[in-house]
Amino acid sequence: MPNTDAIGVGLLGMGVVGSGVVRLLQERTAHFRKVRGVDLALRRVAVHDLSKPRSVELPKALLTDRAEDVVDDPEVQIVIEVIGGIDPARSLCLRALKVGKDVVTANKALLAEQGGDLFRAAAQHSAHLAFEASVCGGIPIIRALTDGLVANRIQSIYGILNGTTNYILTRMTDGGGDFEEMLGQAQEKGYAEADPTMDIDGTDAAQKLALLCRIAFRVDLSHQQILKEGIAQTSPLDIDFARELGYTIKLLGIAKAVEDRIEARVHPALIPSDALLANIKDEFNAVEIVGNAVGPQVFYGRGAGQLPTASAVVSDLLDLAEHRLTGRTPGPSPLAALQEAVPIPPDEIETSFYCRFTVYDRPGVLARIACIFSEERISIATVIQHGRSETAEGTVPLIMTTHEAREAAMRRAVAKIDRLPIITEKSRIIRIEEL
Amino acid sequence: MPNTDAIGVGLLGMGVVGSGVVRLLQERTAHFRKVRGVDLALRRVAVHDLSKPRSVELPKALLTDRAEDVVDDPEVQIVIEVIGGIDPARSLCLRALKVGKDVVTANKALLAEQGGDLFRAAAQHSAHLAFEASVCGGIPIIRALTDGLVANRIQSIYGILNGTTNYILTRMTDGGGDFEEMLGQAQEKGYAEADPTMDIDGTDAAQKLALLCRIAFRVDLSHQQILKEGIAQTSPLDIDFARELGYTIKLLGIAKAVEDRIEARVHPALIPSDALLANIKDEFNAVEIVGNAVGPQVFYGRGAGQLPTASAVVSDLLDLAEHRLTGRTPGPSPLAALQEAVPIPPDEIETSFYCRFTVYDRPGVLARIACIFSEERISIATVIQHGRSETAEGTVPLIMTTHEAREAAMRRAVAKIDRLPIITEKSRIIRIEEL
Question: Contacts for B64-68 with beta carbons within 8 Å, 24 or more apart?
Answer without folding.
Answer: B67/B12, B67/B92, B68/B92, B68/B95
